Amino acid sequence: MPFTMQQYGAFVTRHPFVVIVLSLLLAVAALAGGQNLRFTNDYRYFFTDENPYLTAFEELERTYSSPDTIIFVYQPQDGSDATSREALNLAYELTEAGWQVPFSTRVDSLTNFQNTRAIGEDDLEVRALVPDPSDISDRRIAYIEETILNEPLLAGRLLSLDKKTAAVLVSLRPPVDDTVATNEIVSKARAIHEEMRAKYPNIRIELTGSQLLSNAFSEAAQSDLTTLTPTMFVIIALVLIATTRKLFRHFGGDDCRHPIGRHGDGHRRLARLAAFASGFRRADHYPHRRRGRLCAYSHHRFGGAGARPKQKRRNY
């Protein structure tokens, strides 16, 4: 025999505590899988293991090095070049601070570029392009600009072709899919960023790189948990309140004036719900049309005490 809605409604009304306990047990069982949920900032999860582009990328990474980076981009706000004395001092300090970023393996900038030049006929000199920017002449600045713009590794990469914007590139090799390591890297980079912005207020400094992108996934998810998720529950609660109040008004209005025994309102509402679900189909028997007949039916079917055989109809 199939389990009907009438039987389900009767069971819920007669055994409310059993239904509550069973619902809580089912909810706890469903939440047991929550222990396997976690945040990840690894962009590899957007691809399958068989993806040819991911396979080629991982092969390139194994052959050479990790492409994970932190990039400090700076631009003087007074319109001067990024090779000015102040900008070169900033590049020098960012280069030194870049080595303090966790899991850093290399730092590239205008100041530590290993410049090679010939001295005489047989000697080569290899040294940093700007070993000490605190004491530098205009002639030296002109030589630095010429060297940078003629160097393919620097022009258009660490220095824009108009000489207005430059960058310091920090190469990293963090553990794969390690959220803690990424947070440490980003936290240190942001601390350096804030320190340099306070020290050089006339230079605009921005922070970018693949590690910032990876960390954004985790931060966005955590932000959603604090904003979107509570909003979702509030909307669900409001919808439930609105819909259940409509049901209460539809089936729970107090239009039966006579007593129905010890069962009270719960018995009356169950009777109306069951009668409406299965016992009435004609338009003049719907509760919003003829509620008096429905009351008489509910007292007759469910045995309410003191039920009167006839009930005056009221039209709505």
Structure description:
The chain contains ten helices and six strands; from the N terminus they run αααβαβββαβαβαααα. By secondary structure, the chain is α+β, with helices and mostly antiparallel strands. A hairpin with a 3-residue loop joins strand 3 and strand 4. Helix 1 packs antiparallel against helix 9, helix 6 crosses helix 7 and helix 9 packs across helix 10. The two termini are 38 Å apart. About 13% of the residues have low confidence.
Short description:
This protein is α+β, with helices and mostly antiparallel strands and 316 residues long. The protein has 10 helices and 6 strands.
Main features:
4-stranded antiparallel sheet, two-stranded antiparallel ribbon, 12% strand, elongated
Give the biggest beta sheet: 4 strands, antiparallel
- Flag low-confidence runs: 254-264, 279-307
Helix content: 40-55%
Placed side by side, the strands forming the largest sheet appear as: 2-5-1-6
Number of strands: 6
β-strand amount: 5-15%
Q: Indicate the overall shape.
A: elongated
End-to-end distance, in Å?
Answer: 38 Å
